[in-house]
Design goal:
- The protein is 27% helix and 28% strand.
- Strands 6-5-9-3-2-14-17-16 form an eight-stranded mixed beta sheet, with no helix packed on it. A four-stranded mixed beta sheet has the order 1-4-8-7, with no helix packed on it.
- The chain has two domains: 1-9 and 245-492, Neutral Protease, domain 2; 33-243, Sandwich (Immunoglobulin-like), CATH 2.60.40.
- The protein contains ten helices and 25 strands.
- The longest helix is centred in the last third of the chain and has 19 residues, at 377-395.
- It has 492 residues and is α+β, with helices and mostly antiparallel strands.
């Protein structure tokens, strides 16, 4: 996600173990490990993430989501069904789904009516018969979706959930708003492919992550659009949008299919900057290696919400970002494209690892901008260095966010500064090797801060724990390698 706006706006193994122990000590009793004798027990209602303990669920693995939406009109409730094909990882007497708002109708497991109860964002499902460990099972939830349902955060996210547009809707699921769209295993470490089946009036177009599989006219003057995400994705990266769109197709490097989704009135006004995507892809591939997915594109958001979002293979960029200056537009476009490698292909193991994703997106955004008419990377990092102790106090160290401060400045420029310091410490050639090893070695997987420190040490041929830990977890900002004159401002 990018916070640039044109109109406004690990540790050692001991530390990892300590985090795990702390989560276990604070978790509800039902999050205890399943019995070893094979007796069916409830699946955990959350994964114990230090920031969002109840996000995600235990006891099963989602193999695929099928989303069926009968979209009607902006801000108008519509009938929806989510079918989840899953595999149990323990014997289950019951299990949970993350599901917020929306009017629940019925839940079935393998076609049989199941018990269902709701408390907060937790939907507890009790199947007619217990589910054996290692079994495949299918859950279907029918409900009335509310496409005007949003929540608010006092950080860079602002509003999230269903975001209405003048003639449709777009989706902002980050950080944990997917549960407002569909019942799910809503944590960034949990990934699964998604099939989208969205019916709309004939004068509307539906889009979603991945590939358009079919467009079929159905009774009532409507059209059913089917999309396949093609590759697994985290729930925070789901995108589906409906509106009076034009699909603008082109090619990127190596013939990569590009598809921009643009409100009809914005096709020409945004064309100049959208046409830069092939250049952005080529620039990033030169530094990071091949683009990790089968296609890409930009969804132009016809909304006043000034937040861009790295939804997988289809980055959501607000119209204001594409109607301002070229420097500002390219910063946001490169930022969200960089996320396709960092945060999308290599997913977060926990929300405390967000610095890896946002720090890299900001680092490459600024590196690109420096060479294309923007401010100096060094100057930007010197400014961030001066403020770093204050940010540590206000927002937590880069790898130690608190929930209210998750998407504050430290996770952006403050985390890019960690990468800048690493590059200054090991040299540009070794830094580039680390980056390429990260995106290739963890492609299609989840990874943590601990993984990053270990990999950087391996590639550099030296233990970087002692260097990186103070940068990532310390209360004070360490000296910047190669810049003894840089000074940190006093904390107020």
């Amino acid at each position: 996600m990018s916070t640039n706006r044109t109109t406004r706006r690990g540790a050692r193994l001991a530390l990892a173990a300590a985090i795990t122990v702390a989560a276990a000590l604070t978790a509800p009793p039902s999050q205890a490990a399943p019995a070893t004798d094979g007796r069916p027990l409830p699946g955990a209602p959350g994964l114990g993430d230090p920031l969002f303990p109840l996000d995600g669920n235990g006891g099963y693995r989602v193999d695929r989501y099928y989303l069926d939406f009968d979209w009607q009109a902006p801000k108008t409730p519509f009938e929806a069904a989510t079918t989840i094909r899953a595999t149990s990882t323990q014997a289950l007497s019951r299990f949970n789904l993350d599901f917020a708002g929306n009017t629940l109708h019925a839940v079935t497991v393998d076609g049989a009516r199941a018990g269902a109860s709701r408390e907060g964002d937790e939907l507890t499902v009790t199947p007619k018969s217990p589910i054996r460990k290692g079994s495949s099972f299918t859950v279907k939830v029918t409900y009335t979706a509310d496409p005007a349902q949003t929540r608010h955060r006092d950080d860079a996210i602002e509003d999230y959930g269903w975001i209405p547009t003048p003639d449709g809707t777009v989706v902002y699921p980050q950080p944990n708003g997917a549960r407002m769209i569909f019942p799910s295993d809503d944590h960034p470490s949990r990934r699964a492919p998604v099939t989208f089946r969205i019916s709309t009036p004939a004068d509307r177009t539906a889009v979603a992550n991945g590939k358009l599989v079919s467009r079929v006219e159905v009774p009532g003057g409507r059209v059913r659009w089917t999309y396949d995400s093609e590759q697994p994705l985290s729930t925070q990266l789901v995108q589906l949008a409906v509106g009076k769109f034009r699909l603008v197709e082109s090619e990127g490097p190596g013939g990569l299919p590009l598809r921009d989704v643009v409100p009809e009135a914005l096709v020409e006004p945004t064309a100049e900057y959208r046409k830069l995507t092939p250049d952005h892809l080529a620039w990033l591939e030169e530094r990071l290696g091949p683009y990790p997915f089968h296609r890409y594109g930009v969804l132009v958001g016809d909304t006043d919400l000034g937040v861009a979002l790295e939804t997988q293979t289809l980055s959501l960029v607000p119209k204001a970002d594409l109607l301002g200056t070229k420097v500002d537009a390219e910063r946001n476009l490169v930022h969200e494209l960089t996320h396709q490698w960092f945060g999308n292909s290599v997913a977060l193991e926990s929300w405390s690892d967000l610095w890896v994703s946002e720090g890299h997106a900001r680092f490459y955004e600024r590196l690109y901008s420096e060479a294309h008419g923007g401010d100096s990377l060094e100057a930007a990092m010197k400014t961030a260095y001066a403020a770093h102790d204050q940010w540590r106090k206000d927002f937590g160290a880069p790898a130690e966010p608190t929930e209210p401060n998750l998407f504050k400045r430290m996770r952006y420029d403050g985390s890019a500064l960690v990468l800048y310091a690493l590059r200054e410490r090991v040299g540009d050639a070794t830094f580039q090797k680390i980056e390429r090893a990260w995106v290739s070695g963890f492609k299609g997987r989840t990874a943590s801060t601990r993984d990053f420190v270990d990999l950087a040490s391996q590639v550099a041929g030296e233990d970087l724990e002692g260097f990186l830990r103070p940068w990532l977890y310390g209360a004070k900002t360490p000296p910047m390698p190669g810049h003894p004159d840089w000074v940190v401002d006093p904390v107020t």
